Records
---
Amino acid sequence: MIPNIRDIRLLIFDFDGVFTNNKVMVDENGLESVICDRSDGLSIDWLNLYKQRGDIDAEFIIISQETNIVVAKRAIKLNIPYIHSASNKYDILKSHYKISEEEYKSLLKKTIYLGNDVNDLRMMKEVGYAVAPSDAHYLVRKYADLVLNEKGGEGFVRKFVEILLGITEMSHEQVISNLLSKS
């Protein structure tokens, strides 16, 4: 069962394969670009709104092994702190928070991690709750607490946020109306 949002202190998103479909386009000049799903971005707006209203106390962060500036650009647009070029996500995140190992392990117990590939496995094993898209590597799916039907970059983040916030098909209209009236 997914943790109650009020019990979560940190929500970590990998980038490629979570916000993207894990594919990259490279032009003749070597410039890379990716495709992100706007509905995933809208759901991050919802999280930020819930946080502003005090309904969520958790921090959100994107942490990616990718060095491409596209991670930073998307994170800034979504208003989420980010760390990119993170080859060892566990250690880099720990140093980012500048806390003891004991405090870090305590924080991770109240953390949800969304990831899709083998470089996410250590974090997924350390956190309190791990979530993967349906097209994640088979080992990631094996260790995830929840595997959604959606693929990375194709509404995966949106579906997770809807589940986390308790938005169902039946309550969608009411929740969205409430969000819009309070923004």
Note: DSSP finds eight helices and eight strands in the chain.
---
Amino acid sequence: MTAARPSDGHPLWVRALAALVCVSLAWTPWALTWGDAFSDAAAAGQAAGASARELVPVPSTAGQSVVM
């Protein structure tokens, strides 16, 4: 069996689209696994931000002046 040339059968863009779909399907399980780690890191960052918000005083304004 020989490989078909791009001029035989389907156009080149159809072959490229088929290759992209194959790679996307193979990539999906890895992307889901990495998504879990990213979600955990985001939750840890939100927790750190919430604790920092409670500890660090935020300046406020009173009329034309800034109150520390």
Note: The first helix runs from residue 12 to 55.
---
Amino acid sequence: MPTLSSNANDQTPAPNRPRRNRLTLWLVLALCAAPVVASFVAYYWLQPSGHVNYGELLTPQPVPAATLAGVDTRPFSFADLKGSWVLVSIDGSACDERCRTKLLYMRQVRLAQGKNSDRIERVWLVNDDMFPNTAVVGEHPGLRVVRAPGSAVLAAFPAPTTPTAHIYVIDPLGNLMMRFPENPDPRGVLKDVSRLVRYSDWK
């Protein structure tokens, strides 16, 4: 009876395992090194030229929830606007050219948000004892015009010189968090506000 040889099938050459193992090792090393290389490139060649926001970020501080009086005699409190982004201008009742420009920018920035425009409120805090210019108020439907002479609310809006130089932003939690520079570039204001609205989760 013929004897089966245990070496009958051993003539097939074994796979080149050392070479395959080395290739696998190099692939693993490349995958591990990729994040390091990417961070190196980003740090030395792709650094942003500066911060992305146009407005100056402020340390978030809640705006006092004091009750003020609107020019329509109805009570007003910033607490009632929680859930919305709020643009604020502080000016005298006469509303000079700078005041009118700020109100115009606030109106146009809100309109530019399209379907998200209802997520933005606008407030004009009148800082003297007179009633505001009715012609100016009529140019801005939906603007909340509030009398606040001597109110502690005014002290919540910091400024290098005077708060009347700026447009301020209050977040949906009721915190003052941004101030735009004096004589702002409307494109910068629009870019910042659009980004805030787009990336926030508030409705």
Note: The chain has four helices and eight strands.
